[in-house]
Design brief:
This protein has 87 residues and is an alpha+beta fold. It is built from three helices and five strands; from the N terminus they run E-E-E-H-E-E-H-H.
């Protein structure tokens, strides 16, 4: 992605080439943070794919390398950390 921030109307917007991706922001710093978020989203989207759950082994749609448990297992084991530390 070749994202950049440029003037648009009375403010600044994020563009990919000539295509505007966001609305106008009141200042350049806010637009730069929005551009960083867009770049992070693009990186995460490239890592998304079907993976096998580390708990049950079932296949599920994973949003990235940090997402290794299916929603069912994540829900069943959500309190596990607190129990492990005596919470």
């Amino acid at each position: 992605m070749g994202l950049h921030v440029d003037r648009w109307g009375e403010g600044y917007a994020v563009f990919d080439g000539k295509q505007r991706l966001t609305g106008a922001y009141s200042n350049r710093d806010i637009a730069l943070r929005a551009m960083d978020r867009k770049e992070d989203e693009a990186r995460h989207a490239q890592q998304a794919r079907n993976r096998n759950c580390l708990t049950c082994g079932g296949e599920f749609w994973s949003t990235g390398h940090g997402n290794r448990m299916c929603d069912g297992c994540r829900g069943r084991h959500s309190g596990l950390d607190a129990r492990m530390v005596g919470g």
